[in-house]
Amino acid sequence: MSIADGLISGAGVWLAHLLYGLMLLVALWRAPWAILHRNSTLQHLVLGATVLVMMMWLLRAGISPGMSVHFLGVTTLTLMFGWELGILCSSLALLGMTLIGKEALDGISINGLCASVIPACWSYWALRQVERWLPQNFFVYLIIGVFLNAACAAALSGIAMMGVLWGSGTYSFYKIWQEYVILLPLIMPPEGLLNGILMTAMMVHHPDWIRTFDARRYIDEQ
């Protein structure tokens, strides 16, 4: 989902500005700038991934303003670069969407929280739980750490935006249910599959591109 121009106003927007701004500051503070500065390959990956995510976000569908759906790809960003760069890359994609008029400027913080911060933080936390509680296995990482993780991230993103639209009184719960909630089970598998395909290709051919994937742990030691 994404907030259309003028759809939500009031104190909630300013609260979103504050929360999103704080998360961006934390991500900027914790991002591995030293590594990024001296690693030209990582720089190209970050730029390319940001552009790819922005192109994915251009492909969307929906009926009512604010209830359009699109692939996120934030789980892949987070697993590749960590949650800090995951938030920053997806935020740059959101900024690009705003500059070309595909997203509303006054809704950038709400969109950023729902489409960037929440899925990035969830994806990183979920992966850490997989590493802590489940066997260190290639297929566990792929199926649960990537596919299921991305599907859940998409669901949480949509539920968060649903809560914003319903809590602000923009739409009734029935309208949101009919136009979005009942479609969530159809949206989650493609999101998981897309992230799974991208991650599988990198895990096989370029595992060094994935910051959270240790080939020695998940492949060599099996």
From TrEMBL:
Its main location: membrane. It is found in: Cell membrane. Keywords: Cell membrane, Membrane, Transmembrane, Transmembrane helix, Transport. It holds the Pfam family CbiM. It comes from the Bacteria. The chain crosses the membrane at residues 7-29, 41-59, 71-96, 108-127, 139-168, 180-204. This is Integral membrane protein. It comes from Pokkaliibacter plantistimulans. The lineage of its organism: Bacteria, Pseudomonadati, Pseudomonadota, Gammaproteobacteria, Oceanospirillales.
